[in-house]
Design brief:
about 625 residues, alpha/beta, Rossmann fold, 2 domains, six-stranded parallel β-sheet, 22 helices, disordered C terminus, NAD(P)-bd_dom_sf, Na+/solute_symporter_sf, antiporter activity
């Protein structure tokens, strides 16, 4: 009995230790990853660098996390499934209509640049990194990839011009599965014994048919589920509650199934599935877009921390001088030269070629593939197999840090970015909204006036205000708005319901605190009986400032004006008189649009631009001061 009691105590204690380790792991990976994402967003830092650093500290540094040992043989398959979800998310963004703008450049970067970079990278690995030829070809195959797990987060934090962003996005997503399959093929060539078939080469007899079958099977596995989803949706045979679970289940299923055929084929199937869904225009995909973006942030955060934490401490001791020289050769010679050669005669400008030639961060796919194939090569006793992992991770760390911090400054220097000033879009071109847009535009703040009525827009264009004739609730309208992205939106049409629809559509992209609409009326703002907050934007100004009220004031001669705050003035220093505060603009930082629903009202600081609607006598003055907003009777 004593022995049984001791065994039970030891078992209970062991289970308690496992629960404690699990809690610590979740706290470090999930909590730490999301915290790093928030810090990166708040201070405009590359999130991938913070996540990579966090993994290094928790893993090789402090020894808190040991993912490979804790999860065991399931670690790499789980990583592969997570990466499949990430490339599926990227595939959803690959609309073939983008080829109208960037098709030639994308084709050069995926079809021509990849083999050139493979050859150049392999030569560099052999002659600079001193790796054996077989290991060199494997290294070159792994590093041709530019990971979407790294590129896509960088694109979200940088306002690149749409054409340049499309180059990087398509290259990262399309090359990802191709590079994984290429590395698998090279590994098979190194490990499979030559067949005794006479003069026919090994690649023709064993590798060629296998590659062809795996490719066709992966494409079929990606296209068929998308067609099935569209078929069921069109015939009302797929309930809404099952639509997204079925799609996510298909992603994992086709990825796992295709990986049984060939390692890396699952990534191709997941990418094709995402592309097929995007280009078949399956209805109800907006909900999936919101969910997959949120899941994508969590998955990327966890994967970066886990893969980096799984690195052994001895990895640093394996970073020899040839490996470091190889890293910088790939970054400064191989990649730029490969892009230059593959884009000769293309319609890309020299600024675009230079930018794409430098920006090529490697990410999770390269790390995962290197960990798997490097271990297999080393276990097979192949010369230099143990150097694959340190060589690839040295390149991953260097590109994430250097490319992550240099992307925004280089894009600015080459004039490949849109304005860094906070941008405002106003839906509805009428007399007073045009006046508001003109005042904001004259202060050097990017503003876009959107409407479907050409005469109203033409009048605004006469004042130099940028205009967009489109329906924001249409696919074309959303694509047009992506070319001139906005950070804030004011829906200012006479139709309160339409304003609410526009705000509800734009809220997931801009944020619910950044979409505003003219008040639909005091009664409709009731939190219980009125319009749901999820179905409308924040009320612009006070509840009584509906469209008719503002329009009547404008008809009486009220006009918008702006004033720059020179100091923290006391109330006595501000001009007296009625006025309606609409917004406070802090250049290069943010726009605070006044709303009665603000939890914390914004306070102007020296240098801020105050935009107000003032009576005729005051609007005609030279300066418009800041006073307390007037509440309509």
């Amino acid at each position: 009995m004593v022995a049984a009691g001791a065994f039970a105590f030891a078992t209970t204690r062991g289970m308690g230790m496992q629960a404690t380790n699990l809690a610590i792991g979740i706290l470090c990976v999930l909590g730490g990853g999301i915290a790093a994402q928030w810090v990166a967003w708040r201070f405009r830092l590359p999130a991938i660098v913070l996540l990579f650093s966090l993994g290094l500290v928790l893993g090789p540094g402090l020894g808190v996390l040991h993912p490979g040992a804790a999860i065991g043989p399931y670690f790499h398959p789980l990583v592969s499934m997570a990466v499949a979800f990430i490339v599926f998310e990227g595939g959803l963004a690959l609309d073939l209509r983008q080829w109208r703008e960037s098709g030639e450049g994308v084709l050069r970067l995926t079809a021509a640049a990849l083999p050139i970079n493979w050859v150049l990278g392999s030569l560099a690995a052999h002659y600079v990194g001193c790796l054996p030829w077989g290991t060199s070809w494997l290294f070159g195959a792994i590093v041709v990839v530019t990971g979407p797990t790294v590129v896509l987060p960088l694109l979200r934090h940088t306002k690149l011009r749409p054409r340049v962003a499309a180059f990087l996005r398509w290259e990262a997503i399309v090359n990802d599965p191709i590079a994984a399959i290429l590395a698998t093929l090279v590994l098979e060539c190194l490990l499979i014994r030559p067949s005794h078939t006479g003069g026919i080469s090994l690649a023709t007899v064993e590798i060629g048919p296998h590659l062809l079958f795996a490719t066709m099977f992966s494409i079929a596995c990606g296209v068929f589920p998308a067609i099935l989803i569209k078929f069921l949706s069109a015939r009302d045979m797929l309930p809404e509650i099952l639509r997204i679970p079925m799609i996510l289940a298909f992603v994992m299923t086709v990825a796992a199934l295709c990986n049984l055929i060939m390692q890396g084929a699952g990534l191709m199937a997941a990418t094709v599935f995402g592309m097929a869904l995007a280009n078949l225009h399956v209805t109800g995909m907006s909900e999936l877009q919101r969910i997959k973006e949120s899941l994508g942030v969590i998955v990327v955060s966890c994967l970066f921390v886990l893969l980096t934490a799984d690195l052994p401490r001895t990895l640093l001791t394996e970073l020899s001088l040839p490996i470091m020289a190889l890293t910088f050769t790939v970054m400064f010679v191989v990649r730029p030269l490969g892009i230059f050669l593959s884009t000769i005669g293309a319609s890309m400008s020299w600024q675009e070629r230079l930018f794409v030639g430098w920006i090529a961060p490697r990410g999770i796919v390269a790390a995962a593939v290197a960990g798997v194939v490097g271990m297999q090569l080393h276990e097979a006793g192949y010369p230099g197999g143990d150097l694959i992992t340190p060589a690839v991770f040295a390149l991953i760390a260097s590109t994430m840090i250097l490319h992550g911090f240099s992307l925004r400054p280089l894009a600015r220097a080459l004039r490949l970015t849109l304005s860094d000033e906070p941008a405002l879009a106003i839906m509805g071109a009428n007399a007073w909204s045009t006046n508001l847009a003109r005042v904001v535009h004259d202060r050097g703040i990017p503003v876009l006036l959107v409407d479907t009525y050409a005469p109203a827009l033409n009048k605004a264009a006469g004042f130099g205000i940028p205009i967009l004739r489109a329906e924001l609730l249409s696919v074309e309208g959303m694509e047009s708005l992506e070319e001139r992205p906005a950070d804030y939106l004011i829906a200012a049409t006479p139709d309160a319901i339409y304003n609410g629809l526009v705000c509800a559509r734009m809220a997931p992209d801009l944020g619910r605190q950044r979409v505003f609409q003219v008040s639909p009326g005091i009664a409709r703002l009731d939190l219980y009986h009125g319009l749901s907050r999820d179905s409308r934007g924040k009320v612009l100004g006070e509840p009584g400032w509906n469209f008719s009220y503002i329009d009547s004031l404008y008809a009486k001669g009220w006009r918008f004006g702006s004033h720059v705050m020179e100091a923290h003035g006391a109330e006595a220093d501000l001009p007296a008189g009625p006025g309606m505060l609409f917004m406070i603009i802090r250049k290069g930082t943010a726009i605070w649009i006044f709303s009665a629903e603000d939890a914390i009202p914004a306070e102007p600081a020296p240098g801020d631009i105050i935009v107000m609607l003032r009576p005729p006598a005051m609007a005609a003055g030279e300066g418009v001061g800041a006073s307390a907003p007037a509440r309509p009777a």
